[in-house]
Fold this sequence. Notes:
The complex is a heterodimer of chains A (115) and B (113).
Chain A (H helix, E strand, L loop, with lengths): L4 E3 L2 E5 L4 E6 L6 E7 L6 E6 L5 E4 L2 E5 L5 E6 L8 E9 L8 E4 L3 E6 L1
Chain B lengths: L3 E4 L2 E4 L5 E7 L5 E8 L3 E8 L6 E2 L7 E4 L5 E5 L8 E8 L8 E2 L3 E5 L1
Parallel strand pairs in B: 2-11
Antiparallel strand pairs in B: 1-3, 3-8, 4-5, 4-9, 5-6, 7-8, 9-10, 9-11
Amino acid sequence: GQQLNQSPQSMFIQEGEDVSMNCTSSSIFNTWLWYKQDPGEGPVLLIALYKAGELTSNGRLTAQFGITRKDSFLNISASIPSDVGIYFCAGLHKGSQGGSEKLVFGKGTKLTVNP
Amino acid sequence: NAGVTQTPKFQVLKTGQSMTLQCAQDMNHNSMYWYRQDPGMGLRLIYYSASEGTTDKGEVPNGYNVSRLNKREFSLRLESAAPSQTSVYFCASRLQDGANVLTFGAGSRLTVL
């Protein structure tokens, strides 16, 4: 089945630094989603990308849908302590022959921000 | 709006005990999902229900059963809990199986001794 390779697995940065993480796959996806999970909570959607090449920003967050439709990255600029959490990418793959679409998750990037 | 509500938030079980995790959504979503989250493994799909009256296996269904009680509620049952089922369980829903955005509950942390 489809798999997403998310990297890095973890990051330790200083407040104010920029962060970059990415997901790659051997499969093509129709939609890329980026979620953030705060400690003790469920994942919350940050950004959704619907077209190859699309670049979308949400405040200090910027994400891009790779032109090959097999990858996506998420950048966080000027990190702050509340950026701490686990970031997940997810790809939506259209089912073949009318089958349902499948949402596949990466394994997450754990971000630690030191004040 | 409460969104997706899961109960209980925490549970400790002994091996062999049974329990049911409850999930309800108030967004009139058709599709509901159960995931488990383990360190280094990300989110893995256990079962899902594309619409009321249907359920299907996900990536890791063994040891679990589900019931789509009505459009709002989707429960996950462990008939005979095992230590390997110690995990954090998340319920999620979306408008329909092909819709893009998945909304998650806050999670249920289960420990099996």
